[in-house]
Amino acid sequence: LDALKMPNNFHIIHYPYTQGYKAEQLNYAYKNIIRNYKNIDSIFFALLDADSDVPQNYLYNINDQIVPNIQVYQQPVAWLRNFDQLSNFSLVKSFPLLQTYFSIAYEIPMIEQLFNYIRIRHFIGNGITIRGSVLKKFNGFPSLIEDTRFGRLCSFANISSRIIPYFGNVDSAPRLTILIKQLSVWFFGTSLFIKDYKSMKAIGVKHITCKNLAFIIYAIFKTFRWLNEGLAHLIIIIIALWANETTILSIIICSLLLRTIIPSIMIVAYTNKIHIAKINILSAIIPIFLSPILYMIDWLGTYLGLMKIILYKLCGRITLYKTERS
Questions:
Q1: C or N: which end of the chain has fewer Cβ atoms within 10 Å?
Q2: pTM metric for this prediction
């Protein structure tokens, strides 16, 4: 630190263990901080991942957005940081386009709590800023897939959130095997909504309400849809080709266009204009047309996650993958 000429109030907290997940590291840091700051209600905790680009003046941008009645602030995420390094002929190059569209079209309205009264929230671990009073209420971060589950806890406890209008840019999985593992971990976290619902009682929140029951119903629907929507498209295409049902095949192709190709084109067309990242249009042509294939095989990750959930429920075994950086 002396060599870096860091200010005196800058501290590094080193996690001393080789076991545990990100939540354990965050909770270790959180407990160290609250030892030195007895009143953390007005303190803000900002989380940034090592594989992300942090915008200049990031902390000033957050500070400009803080208002008294908002407890959680989320920076939206683009998944384009390593887009140019991915092979043009690889399926994984389609993922940054689809996931960035999902971030803009789904996650931003969800975090702002727009349009859908029962849309249960999840947060993104990179670029989230949390008021200390919320962490104190929850006694830190929920273990395992802390960002997804923290968003659900905030939904159940009626804790407000808003978007910080500056994008973060993060790496996407460089290989299909890594992407499948990543999807399985995300699905694992998505499937723990009943556990999060039950945990409300432990922190003194009235959890049996009509709104929270609606959240649970929506969470079941969302989990089932994510598990099966790509696989359903693939099965229907195979059946339609086998039975020579051109009408059904046309409908499914139109569905894939709306879900994959058109959103990918929109990201390539508008990303440069809104200063998220610079995409070489020529290098995006093949990934755009491969995006329906990736969409139809993402069940490999979700069903792997389902298998891990079953093992966790039956045997108490946690078999989640660590994030691979390369």
A1: C
A2: 0.88
